[in-house]
Amino acid sequence: MGLDMGMRRIGVALSNAERTLAQPLSVIQCKNRDRDISAISDLAKENEVGLLVMGLSRRSNGELSPTGEKARRYAKRLKRVLGLPVEFVDEANTTAEADEVLSAARVSRDKRLKVVDMLAASLILKRYLDGEREQL
Prior knowledge:
This protein is an alpha/beta fold. It is built from four helices and five strands; from the N terminus they run E-E-E-H-E-H-E-H-H. It is globular and about 40 Å long. It has helices at residues 33-46, 66-82, 94-104, 109-129, and strands at residues 2-5, 9-15, 22-29, 52-56, 86-90. Helix content is 46%, strand content 21%. Helix 1 (33-46) crosses helix 2 (66-82) and helix 3 packs across helix 4.
C-alpha cells in the first residue's frame, strides 16, 4: 500500500499481487492522528496489505519537510499498530506530476483536488516497485 501523507489529506494506492502495478485507491481526509491511523489500518486489513510505502518529502537542503516529519511519525505508529514493515521513497514532484496527468486528461480543478492525492500515492508506490527506494 502506498501512502502520500499531506497535512490535509492522505492519498492511498495499492499494488497488484505481483507488485508490478500501482493503482489509486482512496483519499483520507485528515481529522486527527488516531482517526487517520484507524482509517489506514482498516484499508490495510481490508486489502490484505503486507507492506506500507510512504512518500518522504525533503526540503531543498536535504532536511525533512514538515510533511516528511509527519510521515516518519505516522510510520512509527503504523508499524506498532499494524505490525507491518514501512519503506520510504522520495516523493519529490509526485503531486505536481499527478496534477499534470489530471490536467492533461482535462479533469476539472474541483475533481482534481479530490483525486490528486491518491494518484500521487500511486506514483510513490510505483517508484518503490521500480526500485527507487530511499536509502535511510
